[in-house]
Amino acid sequence: MRKEMPKSRVALLLRLRRGLKEQLMEFAKREHRSLNQQIEFILERFLSDTSHKERNGPPGEQRHGKSSAGG
To answer: In total, how many domains does the chain have?
Structure first.
């Protein structure tokens, strides 16, 4: 009997270079995750970090579109 995937997940075909897959597999093994869980973890962390950086902008940049130069 085949176990069904939870409804909240979708299947995705992903093609990788063999060396990259091997690196990801080793990383997953060290973290005690499956390859799929590791890829999902990496993607979620990347998106979270990217979203956080976009909200805050580069260091020293003014927020809310206001500039410090007479405007």
So the answer is: 1
Mean pLDDT value of segment 34-41: 96
pTM: 0.64
Domain residue limits at 40:
18-55
Q: Which amino acid is at 65?
A: G
* 12-51 core/surface letters (b: 16 or more CB in 10 A; e: else): eeeeeeeeeeeeeeeebeeeeeeeeebbeeeeeeeeeeee
Residue 6 within a domain: no
Could you tell me if residue 35 is inside a domain? yes
Separation of alpha carbons 63 and 61, rounded Å: 6
Nearest alpha-carbon partner for 43 in 33, 55, 58, 56: 33
Structure tokens at 66: 């206001």
If you average pLDDT over every residue of the chain, what do you get? 83
